[in-house]
Amino acid sequence: MRALILLGLVGFAAQLVDGSLGMAYGVTSTTLLLAIGTNPAAASATIHLAEIGTTLASGVSHWRFDNIDWKVVAKIGLPGAVGAFAGATFLSGLSTEVAAPVMSIILLALGVYVLVRFTAFGLPRGNLGKPLRKRFLAPLGLVAGFIDATGGGGWGPVGTPAILASGRLAPRKVIGSIDASEFLVAIAASIGFFVGIGSENIDFSWVAVLLLGGVIAAPIAAWLVRHIPPRILGSAVGGVIVLTNVRTLLRSDWVGASGGVQTVAYITIAAIWAAAIAYSLREYRRDRDNELAEAEFERSGEQETAGSPS
Protein backbone atom coordinates (compact mmCIF):
# COMPACT_ATOMS: atom_id res chain seq x y z
CA MET A 1 0.00 0.00 0.00
CA ARG A 2 2.84 2.37 0.85
CA ALA A 3 4.44 1.71 -2.55
CA LEU A 4 1.18 2.53 -4.32
CA ILE A 5 0.82 5.80 -2.41
CA LEU A 6 4.40 6.75 -3.34
CA LEU A 7 3.71 5.89 -6.98
CA GLY A 8 0.60 8.06 -6.90
CA LEU A 9 2.64 10.98 -5.56
CA VAL A 10 5.27 10.36 -8.23
CA GLY A 11 2.57 10.38 -10.90
CA PHE A 12 1.19 13.64 -9.50
CA ALA A 13 4.60 15.33 -9.29
CA ALA A 14 5.76 14.04 -12.67
CA GLN A 15 2.60 15.28 -14.42
CA LEU A 16 2.84 18.61 -12.62
CA VAL A 17 6.34 19.03 -14.02
CA ASP A 18 5.43 17.65 -17.45
CA GLY A 19 2.36 19.83 -17.85
CA SER A 20 4.28 22.91 -16.76
CA LEU A 21 7.52 22.25 -18.62
CA GLY A 22 6.39 20.11 -21.56
CA MET A 23 8.61 17.19 -20.54
CA ALA A 24 9.78 14.77 -17.84
CA TYR A 25 6.72 12.67 -16.92
CA GLY A 26 8.08 9.54 -18.57
CA VAL A 27 11.72 10.21 -17.78
CA THR A 28 11.03 10.90 -14.10
CA SER A 29 8.62 8.01 -13.58
CA THR A 30 10.70 5.48 -15.50
CA THR A 31 13.80 6.48 -13.57
CA LEU A 32 11.98 5.67 -10.33
CA LEU A 33 10.66 2.33 -11.60
CA LEU A 34 14.14 1.29 -12.75
CA ALA A 35 15.57 2.33 -9.38
CA ILE A 36 13.31 -0.17 -7.61
CA GLY A 37 14.26 -2.99 -9.98
CA THR A 38 11.46 -3.03 -12.56
CA ASN A 39 12.13 -4.73 -15.89
CA PRO A 40 13.01 -1.94 -18.41
CA ALA A 41 10.41 -2.94 -21.01
CA ALA A 42 7.74 -3.41 -18.33
CA ALA A 43 8.67 -0.04 -16.78
CA SER A 44 8.29 1.77 -20.11
CA ALA A 45 5.07 -0.11 -20.87
CA THR A 46 3.64 0.83 -17.44
CA ILE A 47 4.47 4.48 -17.95
CA HIS A 48 3.04 4.63 -21.47
CA LEU A 49 -0.19 2.95 -20.44
CA ALA A 50 -0.59 5.51 -17.66
CA GLU A 51 0.28 8.27 -20.11
CA ILE A 52 -2.69 7.41 -22.31
CA GLY A 53 -4.88 8.82 -19.55
CA THR A 54 -2.56 11.56 -18.29
CA THR A 55 -1.84 12.95 -21.76
CA LEU A 56 -5.55 12.93 -22.60
CA ALA A 57 -6.33 14.84 -19.39
CA SER A 58 -3.39 17.17 -19.99
CA GLY A 59 -4.42 17.79 -23.60
CA VAL A 60 -7.99 18.66 -22.60
CA SER A 61 -6.71 20.98 -19.86
CA HIS A 62 -4.29 22.75 -22.21
CA TRP A 63 -7.06 23.05 -24.81
CA ARG A 64 -9.30 24.78 -22.27
CA PHE A 65 -6.53 27.28 -21.55
CA ASP A 66 -5.86 27.77 -25.31
CA ASN A 67 -2.32 26.36 -25.06
CA ILE A 68 -2.44 24.12 -28.18
CA ASP A 69 -1.57 24.59 -31.88
CA TRP A 70 -3.45 21.72 -33.52
CA LYS A 71 -1.49 21.94 -36.78
CA VAL A 72 1.70 21.23 -34.84
CA VAL A 73 -0.02 18.34 -33.02
CA ALA A 74 -0.94 16.68 -36.34
CA LYS A 75 2.45 17.22 -37.98
CA ILE A 76 4.52 15.84 -35.09
CA GLY A 77 2.10 13.42 -33.41
CA LEU A 78 1.57 10.91 -36.25
CA PRO A 79 5.29 10.43 -37.03
CA GLY A 80 5.86 10.27 -33.27
CA ALA A 81 3.42 7.38 -33.02
CA VAL A 82 5.30 5.47 -35.74
CA GLY A 83 8.62 6.03 -33.96
CA ALA A 84 7.14 5.01 -30.59
CA PHE A 85 5.79 1.72 -31.93
CA ALA A 86 9.18 0.92 -33.47
CA GLY A 87 11.00 1.82 -30.24
CA ALA A 88 8.67 -0.30 -28.09
CA THR A 89 9.14 -3.42 -30.22
CA PHE A 90 12.92 -2.82 -30.26
CA LEU A 91 13.16 -2.51 -26.46
CA SER A 92 10.95 -5.57 -25.97
CA GLY A 93 13.51 -7.68 -27.82
CA LEU A 94 16.43 -6.76 -25.53
CA SER A 95 17.38 -8.76 -22.46
CA THR A 96 16.99 -7.08 -19.05
CA GLU A 97 20.76 -7.12 -18.46
CA VAL A 98 21.34 -5.16 -21.66
CA ALA A 99 18.20 -3.00 -21.58
CA ALA A 100 18.62 -1.55 -18.05
CA PRO A 101 21.97 0.20 -18.62
CA VAL A 102 21.00 1.17 -22.18
CA MET A 103 17.84 2.85 -20.89
CA SER A 104 19.80 4.55 -18.09
CA ILE A 105 22.27 5.95 -20.63
CA ILE A 106 19.40 7.36 -22.70
CA LEU A 107 17.76 8.84 -19.60
CA LEU A 108 21.09 10.25 -18.40
CA ALA A 109 21.68 11.92 -21.76
CA LEU A 110 18.18 13.42 -21.68
CA GLY A 111 18.72 14.59 -18.10
CA VAL A 112 21.99 16.31 -18.99
CA TYR A 113 20.31 17.92 -21.99
CA VAL A 114 17.42 19.23 -19.90
CA LEU A 115 19.78 20.50 -17.18
CA VAL A 116 22.13 22.30 -19.57
CA ARG A 117 19.42 23.54 -21.93
CA PHE A 118 17.32 25.29 -19.30
CA THR A 119 20.15 26.38 -17.01
CA ALA A 120 22.35 27.93 -19.68
CA PHE A 121 19.85 29.17 -22.23
CA GLY A 122 16.39 29.44 -20.71
CA LEU A 123 13.59 29.80 -23.25
CA PRO A 124 14.25 31.37 -26.68
CA ARG A 125 11.57 33.78 -27.86
CA GLY A 126 12.70 34.95 -31.32
CA ASN A 127 10.87 34.25 -34.59
CA LEU A 128 7.47 34.02 -32.88
CA GLY A 129 4.60 33.53 -35.31
CA LYS A 130 6.58 31.94 -38.15
CA PRO A 131 5.13 28.59 -39.35
CA LEU A 132 6.63 25.28 -38.30
CA ARG A 133 7.03 23.10 -41.38
CA LYS A 134 6.28 19.40 -41.71
CA ARG A 135 9.80 18.67 -42.99
CA PHE A 136 11.06 19.80 -39.57
CA LEU A 137 8.31 18.35 -37.35
CA ALA A 138 7.96 14.91 -39.00
CA PRO A 139 11.59 13.74 -38.53
CA LEU A 140 11.60 15.31 -35.07
CA GLY A 141 8.48 13.35 -34.13
CA LEU A 142 9.88 10.09 -35.51
CA VAL A 143 13.13 10.38 -33.52
CA ALA A 144 11.45 11.66 -30.36
CA GLY A 145 8.87 8.85 -30.46
CA PHE A 146 11.55 6.17 -30.82
CA ILE A 147 13.62 7.59 -27.97
CA ASP A 148 10.51 7.97 -25.82
CA ALA A 149 9.62 4.28 -26.08
CA THR A 150 13.16 2.92 -25.68
CA GLY A 151 14.06 5.29 -22.85
CA GLY A 152 10.72 5.23 -21.03
CA GLY A 153 10.54 8.95 -21.72
CA GLY A 154 11.96 11.48 -24.13
CA TRP A 155 9.07 12.87 -26.14
CA GLY A 156 9.13 16.10 -24.20
CA PRO A 157 12.91 16.39 -23.62
CA VAL A 158 13.53 15.97 -27.36
CA GLY A 159 10.47 17.68 -28.83
CA THR A 160 9.93 20.63 -26.50
CA PRO A 161 13.45 22.16 -26.62
CA ALA A 162 13.69 21.60 -30.39
CA ILE A 163 10.49 23.54 -31.06
CA LEU A 164 11.34 26.16 -28.43
CA ALA A 165 14.75 26.61 -30.07
CA SER A 166 13.03 27.49 -33.34
CA GLY A 167 11.47 30.46 -31.56
CA ARG A 168 8.41 30.22 -33.82
CA LEU A 169 5.81 29.22 -31.25
CA ALA A 170 5.01 30.77 -27.88
CA PRO A 171 6.35 28.62 -24.99
CA ARG A 172 2.88 27.85 -23.62
CA LYS A 173 1.76 26.72 -27.10
CA VAL A 174 4.85 24.51 -27.42
CA ILE A 175 4.18 22.84 -24.07
CA GLY A 176 0.47 22.37 -24.73
CA SER A 177 1.03 20.98 -28.24
CA ILE A 178 3.73 18.55 -27.11
CA ASP A 179 1.54 17.31 -24.25
CA ALA A 180 -1.48 16.86 -26.55
CA SER A 181 0.47 15.02 -29.28
CA GLU A 182 1.98 12.68 -26.68
CA PHE A 183 -1.44 11.00 -26.44
CA LEU A 184 -0.83 9.45 -29.87
CA VAL A 185 2.70 8.44 -28.89
CA ALA A 186 1.50 6.77 -25.68
CA ILE A 187 -1.12 4.71 -27.53
CA ALA A 188 1.35 3.57 -30.20
CA ALA A 189 4.05 2.67 -27.66
CA SER A 190 1.55 0.73 -25.53
CA ILE A 191 0.43 -1.29 -28.56
CA GLY A 192 4.08 -2.00 -29.37
CA PHE A 193 4.77 -3.27 -25.84
CA PHE A 194 1.67 -5.49 -25.86
CA VAL A 195 2.93 -7.00 -29.11
CA GLY A 196 6.47 -7.36 -27.75
CA ILE A 197 6.07 -8.50 -24.12
CA GLY A 198 2.34 -9.13 -23.66
CA SER A 199 0.45 -8.02 -20.56
CA GLU A 200 1.74 -10.52 -17.99
CA ASN A 201 4.78 -8.38 -17.06
CA ILE A 202 2.75 -5.22 -16.46
CA ASP A 203 1.36 -4.37 -13.01
CA PHE A 204 -1.94 -2.67 -13.82
CA SER A 205 -2.38 -1.43 -10.24
CA TRP A 206 0.78 0.62 -10.77
CA VAL A 207 -0.64 1.91 -14.04
CA ALA A 208 -3.87 2.94 -12.31
CA VAL A 209 -2.12 4.74 -9.44
CA LEU A 210 0.29 6.61 -11.74
CA LEU A 211 -2.67 7.53 -13.93
CA LEU A 212 -4.71 8.81 -10.98
CA GLY A 213 -1.89 11.02 -9.74
CA GLY A 214 -1.28 12.39 -13.23
CA VAL A 215 -4.95 13.10 -13.95
CA ILE A 216 -5.28 15.07 -10.70
CA ALA A 217 -2.19 17.13 -11.54
CA ALA A 218 -3.01 17.81 -15.23
CA PRO A 219 -5.41 20.78 -14.84
CA ILE A 220 -3.18 22.33 -12.17
CA ALA A 221 -0.16 22.09 -14.47
CA ALA A 222 -2.05 23.62 -17.40
CA TRP A 223 -2.83 26.64 -15.20
CA LEU A 224 0.69 26.83 -13.77
CA VAL A 225 2.30 26.89 -17.22
CA ARG A 226 1.37 30.58 -17.40
CA HIS A 227 3.02 31.37 -14.05
CA ILE A 228 5.83 28.95 -13.14
CA PRO A 229 9.45 29.79 -14.14
CA PRO A 230 10.36 27.00 -16.62
CA ARG A 231 14.08 27.80 -16.39
CA ILE A 232 14.26 26.96 -12.68
CA LEU A 233 12.02 23.91 -13.02
CA GLY A 234 14.10 22.58 -15.92
CA SER A 235 17.30 22.83 -13.88
CA ALA A 236 15.72 21.09 -10.90
CA VAL A 237 14.22 18.22 -12.91
CA GLY A 238 17.36 17.74 -15.01
CA GLY A 239 19.45 17.34 -11.87
CA VAL A 240 17.14 14.69 -10.43
CA ILE A 241 17.28 12.67 -13.64
CA VAL A 242 21.07 12.92 -13.92
CA LEU A 243 21.72 11.94 -10.30
CA THR A 244 19.35 8.97 -10.32
CA ASN A 245 20.59 7.48 -13.57
CA VAL A 246 24.27 7.96 -12.71
CA ARG A 247 23.48 5.96 -9.58
CA THR A 248 21.93 3.18 -11.70
CA LEU A 249 24.90 3.07 -14.08
CA LEU A 250 27.54 3.10 -11.33
CA ARG A 251 25.84 0.13 -9.67
CA SER A 252 25.34 -1.81 -12.90
CA ASP A 253 27.49 -4.73 -14.02
CA TRP A 254 28.81 -2.54 -16.82
CA VAL A 255 30.58 -0.21 -14.37
CA GLY A 256 30.52 -1.78 -10.88
CA ALA A 257 32.03 1.32 -9.22
CA SER A 258 33.27 1.10 -5.64
CA GLY A 259 31.45 2.83 -2.79
CA GLY A 260 34.07 5.58 -2.62
CA VAL A 261 33.79 6.36 -6.34
CA GLN A 262 30.01 6.45 -6.06
CA THR A 263 30.14 8.88 -3.12
CA VAL A 264 32.50 11.25 -4.96
CA ALA A 265 30.28 11.12 -8.05
CA TYR A 266 27.11 11.88 -6.05
CA ILE A 267 28.71 14.80 -4.22
CA THR A 268 30.06 16.25 -7.47
CA ILE A 269 26.70 15.97 -9.23
CA ALA A 270 24.87 17.43 -6.23
CA ALA A 271 27.23 20.43 -6.18
CA ILE A 272 26.77 21.04 -9.93
CA TRP A 273 23.02 20.62 -9.55
CA ALA A 274 22.81 23.15 -6.71
CA ALA A 275 24.94 25.61 -8.68
CA ALA A 276 22.69 25.17 -11.73
CA ILE A 277 19.53 25.91 -9.74
CA ALA A 278 21.15 28.95 -8.12
CA TYR A 279 22.28 30.23 -11.52
CA SER A 280 18.84 29.69 -13.06
CA LEU A 281 17.20 31.51 -10.16
CA ARG A 282 19.59 34.45 -10.54
CA GLU A 283 19.10 34.64 -14.30
CA TYR A 284 15.33 34.37 -13.94
CA ARG A 285 15.28 37.26 -11.46
CA ARG A 286 17.56 39.32 -13.69
CA ASP A 287 15.39 38.71 -16.76
CA ARG A 288 12.25 39.51 -14.77
CA ASP A 289 13.75 42.73 -13.44
CA ASN A 290 14.86 43.73 -16.94
CA GLU A 291 11.37 43.08 -18.32
CA LEU A 292 9.81 45.14 -15.53
CA ALA A 293 12.27 47.97 -16.14
CA GLU A 294 11.57 47.93 -19.89
CA ALA A 295 7.83 47.93 -19.26
CA GLU A 296 8.17 50.85 -16.84
CA PHE A 297 10.32 52.76 -19.34
CA GLU A 298 7.77 52.23 -22.11
CA ARG A 299 4.96 53.29 -19.79
CA SER A 300 6.84 56.46 -18.82
CA GLY A 301 7.43 57.28 -22.48
CA GLU A 302 3.74 56.85 -23.30
CA GLN A 303 2.76 59.12 -20.37
CA GLU A 304 5.22 61.82 -21.50
CA THR A 305 3.87 61.64 -25.04
CA ALA A 306 0.29 61.88 -23.83
CA GLY A 307 1.11 64.82 -21.55
CA SER A 308 3.05 66.89 -24.11
CA PRO A 309 1.24 69.76 -25.87
CA SER A 310 0.01 69.03 -29.38
What report would you give on this structure?
The chain has eleven helices and no strands. The chain is globular and about 75 Å long. The protein starts with a helix and ends with a helix. The model has no long low-confidence stretch (mean pLDDT 76).
Quick take:
With 310 residues, the chain is mainly alpha-helical. The protein has helices at residues 2-21, 25-35, 40-64, 70-92, 96-121, 134-151, 155-166, 171-197, 204-224, 230-250, 259-307.
β content, as a range? under 5%
Percent of residues in helices comes to: over 70%
Uncertain parts: none
The best one-word shape is globular
Write down the Rg. 20 Å
> What class do helices, strands and sheet pairing give?
mainly alpha
Report the sheet with the most strands, covering strand number, pairing sense and barrel closure: none
Output mean pLDDT.
76
> Distance N terminus to C terminus?
75 Å
Number of strands: 0
Alpha plus pi helix count: 11
- H-E string: HHHHHHHHHHH
